[in-house]
Amino acid sequence: xxxxxxxxxxxxxxxxxxxxxxxxxxxxxxxxxxxxxxxxxxxxxxxxxxxxxxxxxxxxxxxxxxxxxxxxxxxxxxxxxxxxxxxxxxxxxxxxxxxxxxxxxxxxxxxxxxxxxxxxxxxxxxxxxxxxxxxxxxxxxxxxxxxxxxxxxxxxxxxxxxxxxxxxxxxxxxxxxxxxxxxxxxxxxxxxxxxxxxxxxxxxxxxxxxxxxxxxxxxxxxxxxxxxxxxxxxxxxxxxxxxxxxxxxxxxxxxxxxxxxxxxxxxxxxxxxxxxxxxxxxxxxxxxxxxxxxxxxxxxxxxxxxxxxxxxxxxxxxxxxxxxxxxxxxxxxxxxxxxxxxxxxxxxxxxxxxxxxxxxxxxxxxxxxxxxxxxxxxxxxxxxxxxxxxxxxxxxxxxxxxxxxxxxxxxxxxxxxxxxxxxxxxxxxxxxxxxxxxxxxxxxxxxxxxxxxxxxxxxxxxxxxxxxxxxxxxxxxxxxxxxxxxxxxxxxxxxxxxxxxxxxxxxxxxxxxxxxxxxxxxxxxxxxxxxxxxxxxxxxxxxxxxxxxxxxxxxxxxxxxxxxxxxxxxx
Amino acid sequence: xxxxxxxxxxxxxxxxxxxxxxxxxxxxxxxxxxxxxxxxxxxxxxxxxxxxxxxxxxxxxxxxxxxxxxxxxxxxxxxxxxxxxxxxxxxxxxxxxxxxxxxxxxxxxxxxxxxxxxxxxxxxxxxxxxxxxxxxxxxxxxxxxxxxxxxxxxxxxxxxxxxxxxxxxxxxxxxxxxxxxxxxxxxxxxxxx
Amino acid sequence: xxxxxxxxxxxxxxxxxxxxxxxxxxxxxxxxxxxxxxxxxxxxxxxxxxxxxxxxxxxxxxxxxxxxxxxxxxxxxxxxxxxxxxxxxxxxxxxxxxxxxxxxxxxxx
Amino acid sequence: xxxxxxxxxxxxxxxxxxxxxxxxxxxxxxxxxxxxxxxxxxxxxxxxxxxxxxxxxxxxxxxxxxxxxxxxxxxxxxxxxxxxxxxxxxxxxxxxxxxxxxxxxxxxxxxxxxxxxxxxxxxxxxxxxxxxxxxxxxxxxxxxxxxxxxxxxxxxxxxxxxxxxxxxxxxxxxxxxxxxxxxxxxxxxxxxxxxxxxxxxxxxxxxxxxxxxxxxxxxxxxxxxxxxxxxxxxxxxxxxxxxxxxxxxxxxxxxxxxx
Lengths: 571, 193, 109, 259
Prior knowledge:
The structure holds four protein chains of four kinds. By secondary structure, chain A is mainly α. Chain A has helices at residues 10-16, 22-27, 32-62, 76-112, 120-140, 162-165, 168-198, 211-242, 256-290, 297-310, 326-338, 340-354, 363-386, 388-394, 398-428, 434-460, 479-512. The longest helix of chain A is centred in the N-terminal third of the chain and has 37 residues, at 76-112. The radius of gyration of chain A is 24 Å and the shape is globular. Chain B has a single domain, classed as Four Helix Bundle (Hemerythrin (Met), subunit A). Chain B has helices at 18-46, 60-85, 89-119, 128-160, 165-190. Strand 1 of chain C pairs antiparallel with strand 8 of chain D, so a sheet runs across the interface.
């Protein structure tokens, strides 16, 4: 690594790294692109585990008591373990690594025009910690007593006392894995923020930064500002479990509600932490495929700041009926409903971007538009749950479940597919197959709605969450509701089968796809000005930026795009 | 200073060098970790949770000596930074090792305190106050140990003549550890009402 | 790495800090609780300022670092005041601390 | 709208259903408007040869008004939602109307115990009536409940009453409800409470005055048969229970054969 001082010149610098051995190139890389892909692949493997868990417990719900093919019998303890770890994996080990760490790593240096992260080795370390955390989580499924089954919120005393949870080491390894994961993203986050603050290409002003980078950075800052109390809480919970302190145990003077506050003070900003990167990715895609300038760049940016700021004062809406002071609920209702204001503005801006555009429905665009459509449903149903009195009926019901899957599924899965299909040519230098991409899109989007729309109605019928078998609740054990459950499960199986199309397309295109040009989508941002895939060191010469990232269809120009680093024409 | 690693490391659009900027972000997130613990402690204390009167059992003298030790080590690390800016590697090396020595004395006194408390039956599970006492000071001590290890590594680095800027970075971190102690000291040792 | 700012007189700052330390230890000996709070926490804040401004060179640092740190502390304040009504007020309109008044059902652990 | 799915059997159930309707109308309007515009734009502005996209930044007032005016309307409607919501919330959770009757609800892993106050309307007196998994209520009485937990968090949830409240160990949480329809309803635990969370149900029976008296008398002289067990006995048969369905027709088996 340590090259002589001659490396000041960037072109020679890039060539120094060509002779890296396989070990240093792919196993212990310092190149941000490889680390980004490590995150993405790890996240996708974890997504397969999370999806498998979802399959197992949905099958149990639809056909209670029967052997689930490819899994076996799902008992009550196992059911709890499956739902808990499905939630944990999908949020902490899929959404976070793929959207923030993965695409953040891949895109930030490319989009702001520099050769790597500011601290490449810190970057590698954060991935390694992340990998360890994933392994610890997987290990927790196999210890005596099984994996942790106290819901991903892990409310004590259930999570802190082994006699209550019956998963002595499962619970401890779970909290350990989560804490390690936080440490990993704290380190990664510091790197991201520093890189985008300090290492921007010459000429790139604050308002020339692509929205995707902006939003990832805002998300990382939100994460860093909210996770601290929960890290402290995780230490306290771990000591409750292993040493026998009573931080969260009322009989010893502690308070179980304190954990809920610590958790949701992090947990609510966390929603925006994973939401913002996807919103940024969608902004990139809709501008490219409608050949339009983003409507109101500043407005979009400020609404993101407003959302981030507001997200710190809404956390107690998860606890309206958890025994908190009922007067506080009014305050938190107001702040929660207020969040609709910046987000509505942002959605309006995105839709206004399409106005007068020249929309081409390529696969990434389909994903981006479907994100907007699905997220609209997720967003508006959030209003119900922000209203404290509605929460009296909906708390912990399938309505909540359907709502947050309508936000998290678009964010995580749709956002991931949008980004993967859009940047695939840049990552691997080959194009993905459009037809298969579209088949996969419709095969995912339609079943997704078929899974979660019916669950809203189950929620209206009063069905509560995390129940392995509804036969103990006669009002819920009716044939009509059971049919809805079966319908949702069948849709899930259909959706999972269609993922095979994607996996096939992904790997076949990676090796056999059509060669991708530098700029297949005619986009403006800096990553498209260099070869696909980019070499180590990215840019031959550090680019100079002359304009904002969304100058599409500028009147008076022949080409309908105008790369950020293209010098203005002399008149 | 030698030039290696990516160019990105050496760019500075904000005017603050990347290393220092990163340390500040690190400290901002550390504020939340310690702040979260301290907030919980204050919540329970103001609530009059039984057991918090045990704050009078902590040894103010030991706490005060530890404060003195940490303040002095803070001084020596900042002097190390001042020395390295003048290019005086030997002096800087010596000051860094004074600081590490301060850390050792601090941990020694901490150990003595812990031992005394445990002998008197004030173990971590006795009540919430002692739980917080051991958790907060323990987490702080882990930061002290981490700082000392990194400092030792850096000291050999600068003796060989590279990475001078790291003295300032570890210094900022060490001052932060000192700052945390400045707040833990009144919380755990003085405010026993 | 050397930047052109004058180093403050570190030894002087150090003596200031020691003086403040003596006051904060001596404060409780007067046994006036209100005064103890001032000497303990007021002085902690002054000490923190001295260390941050001089030893950490925040005096010479860009302004936004101050904003960053102060914003962190403000957010902790938000957290404190959001949680305080629940954890500190164990008796309210709709709930009572049943451990304190021994009216609880027997707890299993 | 909720009442199509679940009966509304308490005095404030109607308020919550109304709130649901208000929110549904408001957000339904916005959703269909926004969704319609989105679809319209996608269809209208498809790529056509020779037609170049418009160029505007969305920074001028003449452009931003298209997003700002609807945005002000969103704020106005938010205020409506918040106002209606706070009225309902204050009524349900923040105020305790004078009580006619009292019941103590105790959650533990994984049963509910109920202590009915008995004729004198006070708890901890000799005429208290204790039951397990079986709550008996008198129609039209305003009940206060004292919610406690022996171990972990539980949630006292009766969908037909539109009522949910967490039980927190170490605290006694009080609240109220007023049953307005006779019948037997589900009581759920709606907070994850461990291994048996899925079986932690109970039956809530709202009696008319005379039926209530007979039931209470039966409980006290030991001739009473639990409503909960009766319900479990009669209505447990899910169609896909292994014992009752022939293996061949089941979907899971079909899937298994595919894999």
